[in-house]
Amino acid sequence: MNKHVTAEVIRRYAAVSKDSAAIHVDNEAAAKVGYKRPIAHGMYIMGVAQSLYLADHPKQWIIDYDMKFLKPLLVDTVAIFDFVFSECNIEVTVTAETGEVIASGSFSVKELE
Questions:
Q1: CDD domains recorded for this chain (predicted)?
Q2: Among 14, 24, 49, 92, which one is least packed by beta carbons within 10 Å?
Q3: Sheet holding 77-86, edge to edge
Q4: CATH 3.30.70.1400 at 2-111, yes or no
């Protein structure tokens, strides 16, 4: 599943999460630390992964999760979310459109009654 992570989405997420660190919303701040553009929040990426999974599996509920962030995702990039299913455990890999793996992790799920 693909998700285009736009600057507008990240600005909205920054406002809601109260994490408006300049590296996420300001081109100059991102450039000062070596990025071409601002970077997405790690928790936003994890939340999108969970939302995409649950949209396709509405009778399940995530009860536990773990995600490691390996590289930053630049804003205005397409992120590709790949899920591998194994009973109650879901492995997720998030790759940037450049082919770089930016995050990986897993969810534990249970069926809703």
A1: R_hydratase_like
A2: 14
A3: 2-5, 77-86, 89-96, 101-111, 60-69
A4: no
Question: Model confidence over 7-38: pLDDT tens digits?
Answer: 999 999 999 999 999 999 999 999 999 999 99
Q: How far apart are CA 85 and CA 63, in angstroms?
A: 15
Q: At what angle do helices 7-17 and 42-56 cross, to 10 degrees?
A: 100
- Whether the per-residue pLDDT at 113 is higher than 80: the answer is no
Q: SS3 for the chain, per residue?
A: CEEEECHHHHHHHHHHHCCCCHHHHCHHHHHHCCCCCCECCHHHHHHHHHHHHHHHCCCEEEEEEEEEECCCCECCEEEEEEEEEECCEEEEEEEECCCCEEEEEEEEEEECC
Contact yes or no for 112/61 (Cβ under 8 A): yes
Domains of the chain by residue range: 2-111
Measure the CA–CA gap between 93 and 105, rounded to whole angstroms. Answer: 7
